[in-house]
Design brief:
single chain; alpha+beta; 24 helices; two-stranded antiparallel sheet; about 10% strand
């Protein structure tokens, strides 16, 4: 009988249960996606330049486990908010506490484990989809990654099963021990929001000091290594908490005292709503700000490594294509690329010397790139006379020759002297194209053809002169970081937005009466909807802004890995805020559906 009543209650709140179930499914799916990386040591070691990357991911597992635990607490709170009045009614009708406890236990555990199983399967699918999208859209190369990871699946199932088992036990004991009247009126019990001004000022100063220390340590990460990371993590978490626990309360109090703001529309009601629950939101807002920084930082750094591939390739490669014995390359093959320049330098050689026509270099000087420090390069042009008199310049040319030529001396002759030599004439062709990215595939085919036509070229050594092969080398080097950045960014974004959404929704039931009273006294529905959007907007915006500040300072840690960590930073920010805004709209829609009746 009780089971039938429970199923009836679930059916009556099917939309809320779908939200709950889908949130738990997403949480377990995201957890699996992270563990698919963290438990794959072969993948981490083969796609990362950092030797301690495995340890970093193990620490990440601990962090994500804590975050997931908190997330499930909020989701569980949402479940109990929906059902506690029903349980109280069952008790009033004579149901025994033991039976109610069994019902709560089964309901919580079955919903949780069912969502975990579905979420694990979803995680496998998401891992495969994200892998394919990143590999195809970003043209990255990763090795030893598989979407199906038995260790990750087992760890996810065991972790969530234990969590939901504990949640079911706690729910059962908590509900049974509470008086019926307390259950019926739980949503009407306010939390105290008054704070002493001295305490607020102290917390503001403490928060700013902690944040300052954390930001400083992030900038000094190369000097203090892991100590800087540990100190930064602790101080930034404390600083974030104090900022939300003090500044936000202070700002709300100031705004409520400004009649020009508070008395406009329903602003006073909205500010009172925020003040009413702000202390209860301090921990979740702090956690969301940290997750926001981690997620946005991961995507920003991932995109930074993507940009680094092109920068490093451009810095080390002067020409897009080098053709030894270029006279043998067919024009048909060259028509596949869009030429920007095609410089041919004729060669003749004997046992000891490679001869060049000096006038050809005077007409089209040899272009090389030289490092000037701090990863910066400058272009240098060498004429025939400079090549003849400067051994360093001559060595730049030597790096483009065949192995058997690079050991010989160079002589740069006049056109007449060069033509008088009896040796066979060959060509060294140095080509640039209008759009490297567009012609990359054709350039690779031509580079491979150059190796085939010149068997003495060692592909590993000769790749230094072929831009497309250098691109693939750097792509393989940085793609692991790029993949992890985007992968983890998406995971943390979903988790943080879901956590905040469930925290807001868990308090929605207590707001039904307030919005109902406002409607009954004649408040226009449009004003109520505007108030909801403002209230939830503040709860989403504030941790987002602090998270952005964390990221802007946190990028200092990557200056040794990225030449320009702040370059094109607007793009990951835009991508992130669009996804974040979608979650905001979803939360507004669900919350509105709970606290206000739908118009007929």
């Amino acid at each position: 009988m009780l089971l039938k009543l429970s199923l009836t209650g679930i059916k009556g709140r099917l939309r809320d249960y779908i939200v709950l179930f889908s949130g738990l499914v997403m949480a377990s799916g995201i957890f699996y996606m992270f563990e698919a990386l963290a438990t794959n040591e072969t993948f981490l070691k083969s796609n990362s330049m950092i030797s301690s990357v495995v340890l970093i991911f193990h620490l990440g597992t601990v962090l994500l486990s804590i975050i997931t635990f908190v997330y499930i607490l909020y989701a569980n709170s949402f479940l109990m908010t929906m059902r506690q009045k029903d349980y109280a009614m069952f008790m009033m009708l004579g149901a025994k506490g033991r039976k109610i406890a069994q019902l709560i236990f089964i309901e919580t555990f079955v919903v949780g484990v069912g969502a975990t199983v579905v979420g694990t399967v979803l995680g496998i699918g998401l891992s495969s989809v994200v892998q394919q999208l990143l590999v195809q859209q970003l043209a990255i190369k990763i090795t030893h990654f598989t979407a199906v990871n038995s260790s990750a699946a087992l760890f996810t199932l065991v972790f969530f099963t234990i969590i939901f088992l504990l949640a079911a036990l706690v729910n059962a004991m908590t509900i049974v021990k509470k008086p019926i009247l307390t259950l019926l009126r739980a949503s009407e019990t306010p939390l105290p929001a008054n704070r002493k001004r001295v305490t607020l000022v102290f917390e503001v100063l403490a928060g700013l000091v902690f944040l300052g220390i954390g930001y400083f340590m992030m900038a000094q990460v190369m000097k203090f290594a892991f100590l800087a990371l540990i100190v930064a993590l602790i101080t930034i978490i404390l600083g974030t908490y104090f900022v939300f626990h003090s500044i936000l309360i202070f700002v709300l109090d100031v705004l409520k005292r400004r009649d020009g703001i508070a008395l406009k529309g329903l602003n006073n009601f909205t500010l009172s709503q925020l003040s009413f629950r702000i202390q209860d939101y301090t921990r979740i807002l702090s956690m969301v700000a940290m997750l926001f920084a981690l997620a946005l930082g991961a995507i920003t750094v991932g995109l930074g490594f993507h940009n680094e591939i092109t920068k490093m390739t451009e810095a080390t490669s002067t020409y897009d294509l080098v053709l030894n014995n270029g006279q043998n390359v067919s024009q048909k093959d060259l028509k596949k690329i869009h030429l920007a320049s095609d410089n041919s330098y004729q060669q003749k050689e004997d046992n000891d010397t490679v001869y060049y026509d000096r006038t050809q270099f005077d007409q089209a000087p040899l272009l090389v790139k030289e490092f000037t420090g701090s990863r910066q390069t400058k272009k240098v042009h060498y004429t025939g006379e400079q090549l003849a008199n400067d051994l360093t310049a001559s060595d730049k040319l030597r790096s483009l020759e065949l192995p058997e030529q690079s050991a010989k001396k160079h002589q740069f002759l006049s056109s007449e002297e060069f033509a008088a030599l009896p040796s066979k004439t060959t060509e060294l062709r140095l080509i640039t194209v209008a759009d490297f990215a567009k012609d990359k595939s054709a350039l690779k085919d031509l580079a491979e053809e150059n190796f085939r036509l010149n068997p003495t070229l060692n592909k590993e050594e000769g790749s230094m002169s072929q831009k497309v092969l250098m691109y693939e080398l750097y792509n393989a080097l940085f793609s692991g970081f790029e993949f992890m950045g985007f992968f983890l960014g998406i995971a943390f974004l979903t988790m943080l937005a879901s956590c905040l959404m469930f925290k807001i929704l868990s308090g929605a039931k207590s707001d039904i009466q307030r919005y109902s009273m406002l409607e009954k006294i004649g408040t226009r529905r449009q004003l109520l909807l505007k108030s909801i959007r403002k209230e939830i907007g503040v709860l989403f915006l504030v941790p987002g802004l602090l998270g952005v500040i964390h990221v802007l300072f946190g990028l200092q840690m990557f200056k040794t890995l990225l030449s320009e960590p702040y370059n094109s930073i607007w793009l990951p920010f835009l991508i992130f805020f669009v996804l974040y805004f979608v979650y905001y709209l979803l939360t507004v829609w669900i919350y509105t559906g709970i606290v206000m009746k739908r118009e007929a």
